[in-house]
Amino acid sequence: MSRSPSAFVPGHITGFFSIHPHDDPERAGSRGAGLALSDGVSVDVERAAESAVVLNDQRVSMAAVEGVLDRLGVTARVTIHTELPVSAGFGVSGASALGTALTANAITEDDRTENELIAIAHAAEVAAGTGLGDVVGQARGGVPIRREPGGPPHGQIDGLFVRERIEYVSFGGLDTATILGGDTAALSRAGEDALACLLEQPTLERFMTESRRFARKAGLLTERVEETITAVQNAGGEASMAMLGETVFALGEGLTKAGYDPTVCHIDGGPRNECGQRTTFLDAR
Ligand SMILES: Nc1ncnc2c1ncn2[C@@H]1O[C@H](COP(=O)(O)OP(=O)(O)OP(=O)(O)O)[C@@H](O)[C@H]1O
Ligand SMILES: CC(C)(CO)[C@@H](O)C(=O)[O-]
């Protein structure tokens, strides 16, 4: 192929999650639920003598993307563009890893299926310590519910068939690797409870209620985040915190009605190529 391939991958907000370690990064991951967003990353890959990752015109190091190139056995220049803040709970590294895997497939010697590429991106993201469930959620799109952890064929993913306007405001980042490396027992218990409750009543409203309960029980709320969520609720809306960032997301016009000036997007169907064609669908086994 002569033309360099490109892909769009949605951002992904996790509302709640539990952590499931495993020696094999393809089997490790999280259970939980989230939202795939129409704000995401676009990724272009070009074969190059030495690998380089360029994020919004700046040369950066992004271990999940570098891990994908290593696993594919290719050196390339990966160009990433995103309007999303990095490290603020939108899964930018997962989206970049998945976009790299999907597009770099065209410049490797071996051809791989979508699920094989998702598994590679998931493993690279887990090994980098920057995410556990974003890649599989982004691959599926919509409102992904991660019933079982891991990339394909190990994980099991379901979803809610809804479309909704989503608003968000971000006050800053939280370091995912540091939080995942700390004491996460209470967090995982809260995540398991939230998932059981959502599966009992699988609606977007329940997802929001359980996400809020999780954020409180896991002790992750900052003052600014808590204040903003309360303001949205007082204005009659639904909001919670994006894991893992100092970010609040709301359904519909929740933040606007509470007097904030949020970024507006919507729930997104999943990755697509430069022609706008849907490229992946993660099969639930
Ligand atoms: N300007 C930057 N700010 C923060 N991280 C950056 C930047 N440039 C590159 N990186 C790399 O991007 C990755 C960010 O991963 P991190 O998990 O913190 O954020 P994220 O992928 O946006 O997801 P989330 O906040 O949902 O966990 C890290 O590997 C980090 O080294
Ligand atoms: C760990 C995490 C919250 C980081 O964004 C996400 O990858 C998830 O839900 O597993």
TrEMBL record:
Pfam families: GHMP_kinases_N. GO terms for molecular function: ATP binding; kinase activity. SUPFAM superfamilies: Ribosomal protein S5 domain 2-like (SSF54211). Phosphorylates (R)-pantoate to form (R)-4-phosphopantoate in the CoA biosynthesis pathway. InterPro entries: GHMP_kinase_N_dom, PoK, Ribosomal_Su5_D2-typ_SF, Ribsml_uS5_D2-typ_fold_subgr. Its EC number is 2.7.1.169. Keywords: ATP-binding, Coenzyme A biosynthesis, Kinase, Nucleotide-binding, Transferase. The keyword DNA-binding does not apply. The keyword ATP-binding applies. It catalyses: (R)-pantoate + ATP = (R)-4-phosphopantoate + ADP + H(+). One of its GO terms (biological process) is coenzyme A biosynthetic process. This is Pantoate kinase. Pathway: Cofactor biosynthesis; coenzyme A biosynthesis. It comes from Halocatena salina. Belongs to the GHMP kinase family. PoK subfamily. Residues 64-142 form the GHMP kinase N-terminal domain.
